[in-house]
């Protein structure tokens, strides 16, 4: 018998002729690297994304967007567009039958601009036509007369500027006061930090299909990450009851925030209702950049006080977040920024003020690690400054101040979950450093800039920096987190029905593993998601691993009880004395042994369950309150090579240790961490959606730089701390947001170490990375 090895490293036996070989069942359940069920369809190109959908009698949509960041609309003339051959209908604000405003956090954004446009790219009208080119030409033929107004693009000026919105310019102010506001330390360092506008840059641009229903309603097929909220917003805008609108979730081609803007599906739904025909829109890359939310650009001023030994005494901070034209989820992002403004450190006293304001810049909203990422870059910069002032190593100043379970956040909340911050930092600190590049021609690729782009090798300096980050799990400040799931078992197969959207987080794989673990059934399918199912909430903050995974587990356990109770009664024992493994039911004493299929005896069993974590509370007028369900932590050591004459930077290695609670799928977990680190590195070095007086410059993937495979560093995950959170289902914590939060701070720290420059702006500009010695 010989054997071959597949791509995953598994050995496949090849028997000799006539020799039977037992077939080992594939591993399943929690803790194994179960591959995604949709992987073959995605690799073969048959997975159904919204851009691939089709319907009989299909019309195509196009949206007219404002070329100005701020202007008064004097008139909208659709006559020429309507008269074009092939055009079916043109809709504007006058054609919105229901609520004109929508928005995730605050319903302050119009479906179509009415009297005034407030940001570049704001929708003004939409067209449905028989051909996509006709739709685009018709949209361009709509004549809009503008009175261009002075745009307010500096968030610092928004406080004194005239109101840009009926609700005013200030969205939220959080004044956090913790301990003694008058406390001072023997040593004090100050810093000013600016964080740029990172775009989610999904691999697939937004798309959707709206199909009218005979009952006067509409079905919307789109890559929604929160279908029930999208349904409710659409129904309110269309003047319909929620049950008249159905949102069907298609494949999601990447989602780190961009799928949460319902603007495109609102336009599609209106056009479908007006024409009585299916209407499709596939956004261009430019439309994608202009339509969805971005990471909040943030200005941060910090002052850290410490004693002579480097122990923190007080943190003072001012945090100003640019929300863009509309509120969206800015209030939530600000709460995270203010709450985590001191980082995973013990700080006895804190005075922090945070503001989120409206401007005429592109809209900001939920992006992975929102709020926490911006402040992490700032407080870690301050820790580097303290270390330099006191003559300590950057890792040592951090170790003297790290948080542990039982410590207090500056919001007054006790950290009750596992907080192994010191263990994480020790793990990355003690990992071996990468070797220095050899002085050989083939090593030119290792220099910043690569061949033909790097300066002299003698100008390259290597820096080692550290970052410690933290994020909150689930929603915060009183958000009612709840999810519902149903598990059905028939024959030897099971089905999970849950409206938790698979955005790349791996929930659909996790749901299969939970049922396999609980019921011992290998064949588990996860049904597609639509709003006919009970709601499961948005796909962010690790919600679905915790809340939806918890609902699936409870439903599976209820089915398990239904399955085992008749057998337990028959043999006079409790269900606790029976176990299910590999599709077989056995008793503790071996008297009972049967298969799950035999126990079902042709019956179908099902159960529906909910999971709702313990409640939280809003921050009060002093920024105090138990606002978070739980926390997750990460430590990253970055090694970077910097050309101190040209300012070019190459990240050599990112060494990661992370607090994960419990590893549920090792391969999937590592992929999530590596992706998060890469996204964070992009924010540190290159990703910045640039604007000029509110006008987006180069809204495409040529003008907006993203890290590629050639930019991605070696990512070494040296430790995954599995200290289970007792209140979380399975004890697991979210994996992808905290490395995004931590990586930019670690990269900036490494560049500081290499150059001696303060590095207060992200992404890091080349001129900022030119060392002081090179300027002399």
From TrEMBL:
<feature type="region of interest" description="Disordered">
    <location>
        <begin position="1"/>
        <end position="31"/>
    </location>
</feature>
<dbReference type="InterPro" id="IPR046867">
    <property type="entry name" value="AldOxase/xan_DH_MoCoBD2"/>
</dbReference>
<protein>
    <submittedName>
        <fullName>Putative oxidoreductase</fullName>
    </submittedName>
</protein>
<dbReference type="GO" id="GO:0016491">
    <property type="term" value="F:oxidoreductase activity"/>
</dbReference>
<dbReference type="GO" id="GO:0005506">
    <property type="term" value="F:iron ion binding"/>
</dbReference>
<dbReference type="InterPro" id="IPR000674">
    <property type="entry name" value="Ald_Oxase/Xan_DH_a/b"/>
</dbReference>
<dbReference type="InterPro" id="IPR037165">
    <property type="entry name" value="AldOxase/xan_DH_Mopterin-bd_sf"/>
</dbReference>
<dbReference type="InterPro" id="IPR008274">
    <property type="entry name" value="AldOxase/xan_DH_MoCoBD1"/>
</dbReference>
<dbReference type="InterPro" id="IPR016208">
    <property type="entry name" value="Ald_Oxase/xanthine_DH-like"/>
</dbReference>
<feature type="compositionally biased region" description="Low complexity">
    <location>
        <begin position="1"/>
        <end position="21"/>
    </location>
</feature>
<dbReference type="Pfam" id="PF01315">
    <property type="entry name" value="Ald_Xan_dh_C"/>
</dbReference>
<feature type="domain" description="Aldehyde oxidase/xanthine dehydrogenase a/b hammerhead">
    <location>
        <begin position="44"/>
        <end position="150"/>
    </location>
</feature>
<dbReference type="Pfam" id="PF20256">
    <property type="entry name" value="MoCoBD_2"/>
</dbReference>
<dbReference type="InterPro" id="IPR036856">
    <property type="entry name" value="Ald_Oxase/Xan_DH_a/b_sf"/>
</dbReference>
<dbReference type="Pfam" id="PF02738">
    <property type="entry name" value="MoCoBD_1"/>
</dbReference>
């Amino acid at each position: 018998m010989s054997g071959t090895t597949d791509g995953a490293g598994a050995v496949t036996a090849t028997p000799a002729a006539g020799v039977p070989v037992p077939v080992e069942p594939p591993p399943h359940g929690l803790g194994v690297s179960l591959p995604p069920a949709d992987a073959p369809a995605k690799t073969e190109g048959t997975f159904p994304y919204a851009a691939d959908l089709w319907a009989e009698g299909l019309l195509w949509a196009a949206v007219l967007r404002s070329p100005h960041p701020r202007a008064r609309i004097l008139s909208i003339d659709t006559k020429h567009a309507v008269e074009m051959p092939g055009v079916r209908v043109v809709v504007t604000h006058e054609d919105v039958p229901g609520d004109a405003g929508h928005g995730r956090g605050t319903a302050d954004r119009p479906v179509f601009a009415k009297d005034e446009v407030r940001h570049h790219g704001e929708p003004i009208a939409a067209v449905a036509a028989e051909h996509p080119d006709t739709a685009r030409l018709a949209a361009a033929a709509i004549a809009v007369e503008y009175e261009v107004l002075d745009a307010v693009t500096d968030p610092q000026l928004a406080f004194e500027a005239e109101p840009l919105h009926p609700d005013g310019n200030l969205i939220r102010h959080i004044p956090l006061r913790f301990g003694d506001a008058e406390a001072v330390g023997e040593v004090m360092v100050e810093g000013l930090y600016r964080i740029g506008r990172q775009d989610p840059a999904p691999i697939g641009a937004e798309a959707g299909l709206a199909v009218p229903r005979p009952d006067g309603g509409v079905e919307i097929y789109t890559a929604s990450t929160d279908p029930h909220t999208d349904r409710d917003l659409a129904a309110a805008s269309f003047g319909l009851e929620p049950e008249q609108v159905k949102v069907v979730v298609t494949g999601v081609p990447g989602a780190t925030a961009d799928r949460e803007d319902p603007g495109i599906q609102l336009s599609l739904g209106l056009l479908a209702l007006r024409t009585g025909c299916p209407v499709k829109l596939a956004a261009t890359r430019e439309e994608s950049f202009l339509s969805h939310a971005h990471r909040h650009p943030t200005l941060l001023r910090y002052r850290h006080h410490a004693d002579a030994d480097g122990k923190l005494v007080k943190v003072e901070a001012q945090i100003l977040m640019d929300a863009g034209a509309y509120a969206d989820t800015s209030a939530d992002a600000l709460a995270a920024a203010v709450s985590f403004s001191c980082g995973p450190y013990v700080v006895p006293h804190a005075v922090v003020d945070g503001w989120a304001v409206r401007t005429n810049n592109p809209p900001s909203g939920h992006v992975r690690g929102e709020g926490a990422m911006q402040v992490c870059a700032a407080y870690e910069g301050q820790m580097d400054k303290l270390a330099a002032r006191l003559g300590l190593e950057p890792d040592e100043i951090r170790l003297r101040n790290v948080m542990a379970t039982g410590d207090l956040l500056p919001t007054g909340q006790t950290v009750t979950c596992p907080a192994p911050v010191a263990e994480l930092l020790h793990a990355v600190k003690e990992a071996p450093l990468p070797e220095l590049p050899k002085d050989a021609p083939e090593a030119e690729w290792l220099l910043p800039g690569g061949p033909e782009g790097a300066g002299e090798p003698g100008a390259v300096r290597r820096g080692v920096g550290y970052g410690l980050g933290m994020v909150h799990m689930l929603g915060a400040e009183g958000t009612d987190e709840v999810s519902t799931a149903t598990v059905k078992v028939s024959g030897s197969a099971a089905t999970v029905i849950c409206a938790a959207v698979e955005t790349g987080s791996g929930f659909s794989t996790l749901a299969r593993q939970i049922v396999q673990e609980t019921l011992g059934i290998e064949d588990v399918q996860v049904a597609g998601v639509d709003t006919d199912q009970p709601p499961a909430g948005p796909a962010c903050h690790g919600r679905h691993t915790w809340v939806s995974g918890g609902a699936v587990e409870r439903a599976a356990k209820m089915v398990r009880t239904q399955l085992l109770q008749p057998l337990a009664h028959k043999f006079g024992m409790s269900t606790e004395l029976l176990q299910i493994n590999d599709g077989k039911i056995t008793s503790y004493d071996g008297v009972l042994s049967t298969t799950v299929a035999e126990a079902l005896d042709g019956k179908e069993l099902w159960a529906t369950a909910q999971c709702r974590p313990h409640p939280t509370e809003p921050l009060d007028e002093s920024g105090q309150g138990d606002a978070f369900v739980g926390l997750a932590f990460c430590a990253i050591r970055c090694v970077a090579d910097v050309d101190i004459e040209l300012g070019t930077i190459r990240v050599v290695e990112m060494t990661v240790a992370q607090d994960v609670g419990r590893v549920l799928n090792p391969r999937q977990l590592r992929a999530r961490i590596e992706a998060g680190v890469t996204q964070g590195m992009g924010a540190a070095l290159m990703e910045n959606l640039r604007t000029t007086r509110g006008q987006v410059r180069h809204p495409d993937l040529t003008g907006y730089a993203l890290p590629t495979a050639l930019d991605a560093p070696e990512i070494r995950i040296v430790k995954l701390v599995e200290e289970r959170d007792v209140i979380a289902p399975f004890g697991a914590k979210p994996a992808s947001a905290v490395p995004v939060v931590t990586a930019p701070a670690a990269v900036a720290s490494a560049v500081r170490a290499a150059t001696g420059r303060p590095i207060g702006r992200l992404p890091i500009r080349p001129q900022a990375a030119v060392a002081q010695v090179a300027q002399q």
